[in-house]
Design brief:
112 residues; four-stranded antiparallel sheet; alpha+beta
Length: 112
């Protein structure tokens, strides 16, 4: 699959997840999440935060989540769908590597 085709596929997944977020109820922490993709026990999720304490904190996040231990491994804050697509490409690559037993989880970061 070419890089352009792969990017369009990821962008489609992220856009569909973003549109489906409106159907998800807010949790007690003021956020909601939806799955974008899964790689074995690893899940890429799109999260929306209802209100942040600061304008500097993004309202949209892409998260790499380990379902087997129920912990977030990595999360990237995003300003828009384009940034979320780039973040999703990154964490999908991480998830594939982790599922194949390669590499270590990266530290949390904010990408804007």
């Amino acid at each position: 699959m070419s890089d352009a085709t792969n990017r369009r596929s990821v962008e489609t997944l992220v856009t569909q997840a973003y549109l489906q977020l409106v159907l998800v109820s807010w949790d007690e922490n003021g956020s909601r999440a939806i799955s974008v993709a899964k790689y074995g026990t690893y899940e890429i999720r799109l999260l929306e935060v209802m209100s942040a304490d600061s304008a500097e904190i993004p309202h949209l996040w892409v998260e790499l989540y380990a379902n087997d231990v129920q912990v977030s491994i990595d999360a990237c804050g995003c300003d828009d769908i384009e940034a979320a697509t780039m973040a999703a490409e990154h964490v999908m690559s991480q998830a594939r590597q982790l599922e194949q037993g390669e590499g270590e989880p990266a530290a949390r970061r904010v990408a804007q």
